[in-house]
Amino acid sequence: MIGKSVIRKEAWDKVTGAAKYTNDYVTPGTLHARLVTSPYAHANIQAIDIEKALSVPGVRAIVTGEGLPLTGEDLLDRPPIAFEKVRYHGEVVAVVVADTLVQAEKAANLVRITYEPLPVVGSPREALKEGAPLIHEQLGSYQKGRGIYPEPNTNIAHRTKIRKGNMEKGWAESDVVVEASFSFSPSDHAAMETRCATAEILPDGYIIIYASSQSPFMIKKLISSYFGEDVGKVIVHTPLVGGAYGGKTPVQLELLAYLASKAVGGRKVSVWNTREDDIITSPVHIGLEATVKLGCTNDGYLKAAEILYLFDGGAYSDKAIDVSRAGAVDCTGPYHIENVWCDSLCVYTNHPYACPFRGFGHGELSFAIERTMDLLAEKLQMDRLELRMKNAICPGHTTPTQVLLNNSNVGNLPKCIERLRELIHWDDWQRIEIDARTVRAKGVSCIWKTSTVDTDASSGAILTFNPNGSINLISGVVEIGTGTKTILAQILAEKMKMDIKDIHVKMEVDTQTTPEHWKTVASRGTFMAGRAVLKAADDAIRQLKEIASIVLRASVEDLEVGYGKVFLRDDPAIYVNIKDIAYGYKYPNGNAIGGQIIGRGNYILRHLTYLDKETGAGKPGPEWTVGAQAVEIEFDKRDYTYKIIRAVSVIDIGKVLNEKAAIGQVMGAMSMGLSWASRETFLFDRYERVLNPQLRTYRLLRFGEHPEYIVEFVETPQIDAPYGARGAGEHGLIGMPSALANALSVAAEVPLNELPLVPELIWRKKKGEHHGSI
Amino acid sequence: MATTQQCEMLLTVNGEAHSVIARPADTLLFVLRNKLRLTGAKPGCLNGDCGACTVLIDGGPIKSCMMLAIETVGKTITTIEGLKHSPIQQAFVEHFAFQCGYCTPGFIMNAHALTEKYPDASDDVIQEWLESNICRCTSYREIEQAVKSVLLKKHRND
Amino acid sequence: MVPFDFTYHQPSSIHEAIQLFQTLQQQGKKPMYYAGGTEIITLSRLHLVFTDAVIDIKQIPECQVLDIQQQQLVLGAGVSLTTIEEANPFPLLTKTASEVADRTARNQITLGGNICGQIFYREAVLPLLLADSEVVIAGKDGVQQRSIHQVFQQHMQLQPGEFLIQVKTEQTYLSLPYAHIKRRKQGEVGYPLVTVAALKKDGQLRVAFSGVCPFPFRSQAVEERLNQQLPVNTRIDEALQHLPRPILDDIEGSAQYRLFVLKHTLFDIITELEGE
Ligand SMILES: Cc1cc2nc3c(=O)[nH]c(=O)nc-3n(C[C@H](O)[C@H](O)[C@H](O)COP(=O)(O)OP(=O)(O)OC[C@H]3O[C@@H](n4cnc5c(N)ncnc54)[C@H](O)[C@@H]3O)c2cc1C
Ligand code: FES
Ligand code: FES
Question: ipTM of the predicted structure?
Fold first, then answer.
């Protein structure tokens, strides 16, 4: 069962149109909301005139921002609806509720808002300049969580410091030093299902939410804490989710749906993003400006790293603080460096606000680090893979936050590099001229990632039995497309030695009846929920054996569960069928014992700690998945256009649980990474308005533009994980931007340190090189 | 609702005739989902860019967010709900050609029309057709393999 | 979702369509001709188009013609781009059409709608400009046939109430040597950074452009320069001096970069048609 390419449980629903997503549940009688959003990136709201809008037939309410609490997960800095001031283009200023979507739209178009434009902040570096406009004047007074350090009267929402070793010593030992800067603007997750939430407040006070979300349990807690609602009365349903990639972790539309429902006496209201709103109004993929300085010995051993990450958190911090901290935690990339200095800042700008994106800060930091590694290799005149191999992180080394690595908590990076070298025929050639115009080139990168989840994140599972002995598996993991729930069924089938067909997975999450799974993020679903399922299975097995021991008149220790039976280990011919005891056992005379078997299990991450404010020391996550990646391109020297020929990943996944699903996750992530790196970005005008908030102009990689993909796995088990499996849902993405940039830089013979890598960028860099200016 | 002008239209969807009351300005996607409760066709952009809403009109793929329902009176509409055990559905399942599944109904309808119309489609034709749909989860390679497996089977049966 | 209401009319003759337009206008309405609807629907969503009555011209038999009549290719304005591509009566038009939007969208986009649309690329007009096509237009004074050069100046110069019925192209143009290159910012679907279409007639190169300026065009000044007896690069450099203004400087690319791309694109076009 383990390792097999089991077809996902909801597969047939998904190919027949039967699969239901949040917006498919909008029933007749539901009211519809339309968001009125800001056309300015930074402005004072002087007046809101809703009179004309209210007169549109069918309009039930228009909700504005007055009197609402500030919200946020780490730092409470965001009004759910802008109040007095807007801080980004697309920010919600009012919510119109009407009988139909058309009426809501008509009315939304009639809400008249008077703004007084303010000077805008368009990048982290601008935000840090002396005299830059302050985006949050009240930063000092915001409520905040533990370990969050905003710097009042600046635009710094948080700073994570890494101080490891002795920098002076590091530089003294370094013979060769390189320093370079990197940047890219925010971009979008662009899940095909736009975000959507409905809310209804029942007469008895129960609040029923449906949400396309990765965090249904967080919605419940936050609505309770922001608005003083009884947490037990908030019930969140999350059906299948149409793509998320981190973009559905923040709680945003749910709050609006709740407020809207409250404004119309508790009636059910649907808040459904248009694509345009989904792109700019809802949280986005973070931008970054970085400076990296690396020093090494003449033979290529890294001795010192000085790193500055300025993450573009946008107008509000949401989880951007956490992303910037994750960037610090793994700031060096997967390399052993004894002396590290890093400041990673989450900076406010007048951009749409950022939230997690697949890779959680690692695709971002990897771009800066892996480009610098190539620059260093060039300066050393050393083979680029060799340099990486020499410095590869291994058991016995420590991470930037000074966690000591061992054989279980880190995978085998040298093995990944070795295999990559073979797969891409690295030693044959790295750059060849095909003809006068065409060059082929290869670029490589190494990746690592741990998951900086909350230190007390937990996951639970419940197993209930059916009269035929089959099992219902109930877990709080949201099925966002990763197939995690099918893998949980595989884990259970393996454990119970039963046919996976007899495991029925509850796809929907309902926070009232589903045990909590913290958030479906960070490639942690399989690990945490898998552990919970194994524990629940143990619990069920114990109960089954207890009844069976009475029925079979044998001691529990002699019994074994499997193949639909509980049997004597030494004589399997003596057994009782699970179906005959799953609901208690009935003796021929009618007496009965036992009752329905209900297995329960949970798992909480262990030994995670907060990071030290001054040095960053601490244990941020349970394990590090590592890997090596490559991209091969064909480049046109005249036009600066290129084609991605091949993309390769070798990832130490610990143990492959479902081969095709794992390969699919990695390839999908690689595709997303290549799409981002080669074309995706928000384009801002000088007022920091987003000029491309549509898929017509925010273009994603399409069919036929995909390269050949090669994915292989190394298996170094993580001892405390189910069957040794490591997280791998995000890792395929991490090294793609840097590998692509490395390949193109070699092909074009110009350093490419910005994203996205469109031909115009390469043209501009080449031109700058030849003519000294752009 | 006083200002909303509604009218009755007779639509033939998946072989069944339906009389629906809708605005002439309502798109086919809206009517399918909100009036006929056929939620298989998905809204992804309502702007013709993503293909999630693709259905077949007289056998050819159309983005239902960009067509008025009233334009389809007298035509045959096929949605994913009307596709039963087609080779393309089977192939998508076997080749893991979807993850979240949101783009899948649109992709399948387009790919189904392609394989019916051009059983010997070349790579160029496959690309020309399928670049109309966006998938954000898979790498497209899985989808390519699924479609090619159906074409290959058709070929063998010829 | 169209955030306003309109009535829908489906005339079955040219006359009926014209009448409808007038009647609706007299009723104080703001009628609009409707073909594929792709632009009307997508711009309505953004409140960039408003109408309260649409007149769908697709069922008018004349708008559905795709035929050779009296040595002319006649294309109805209501014919979809993919229908034209599949019939392939005019290979340059097939090539140009096949690069517009994506295939599913082109099942809906009509020839007339693409040419008459607001979105300024209007790529399908390029081959028609090159082939000196004639346009058949219906208005309240009846049906007229005019040269496309008269009617299409940056955009279709139609009087209120007029609509395009057909485009006619002399058969001799259909098989002329041609070239077509669409260059995008990145990727293979999307608006043009630069589109160049070319025909070679009597040894002379004809070129038309989309994406270079905020309108498609064919320019005599440019063609003259390109047809000089000079080295290719000199011809191109001179031609670029004579482009209409302004050169687009937008999210697809800067003006300077466009000129860079255009230069190479023209080079490729000329090379491809050299010796033809
Ligand atoms: C996904 C997508 C991508 C696109 N990419 C491109 C591209 O790369 N290049 C490009 O050139 N365009 C592109 N477009 C724009 C597209 O060209 C227009 O949406 C389309 O051409 C409009 O054609 P239609 O038949 O749908 O017209 P409609 O939407 O029906 O009409 C458009 C306009 O033309 C008028 N009109 C229509 N027919 C007539 C007629 N016979 N006589 C007079 N007026 C008429 C209408 O009144 C309306 O004002 C794209 C569109 C989409 C949806
Ligand atoms: S919803 Fe129709 S194309 Fe995106
Ligand atoms: S499977 Fe999720 S978008 Fe295609």
Answer: 0.96
